[in-house]
Amino acid sequence: MPSPNKHSSPSPAAVRDARIAAGLTQTEAAQTVQASLRGWQQWEAGDRSMAPGLFELFMLKTRQWPLEGGHRAG
């Protein structure tokens, strides 16, 4: 999976993979960044782009930081 640079939105697969690596449900992941379940589902489906800073926050809060070479999951 190609990794976007640190200033671009993560891919839907990166969002999903990060959630799974954290062992969270979509509901739990959404709560981690104070988003709605529907919003999280849209990020994973590619219907909406997740802001890079929000993805970084999720990665920090789930102890998957630092990212090496841009966004990645786990």
UniProtKB/TrEMBL annotation:
Keywords carried by this UniProt record: DNA-binding
InterPro entries: Lambda_DNA-bd_dom_sf
An example Gene Ontology molecular-function term: DNA binding
Domain of life: Bacteria
Matching Gene3D superfamilies: lambda repressor-like DNA-binding domains
Name of the protein: XRE family transcriptional regulator
Organism of provenance: Variovorax guangxiensis
Record lineage: Bacteria, Pseudomonadati, Pseudomonadota, Betaproteobacteria, Burkholderiales
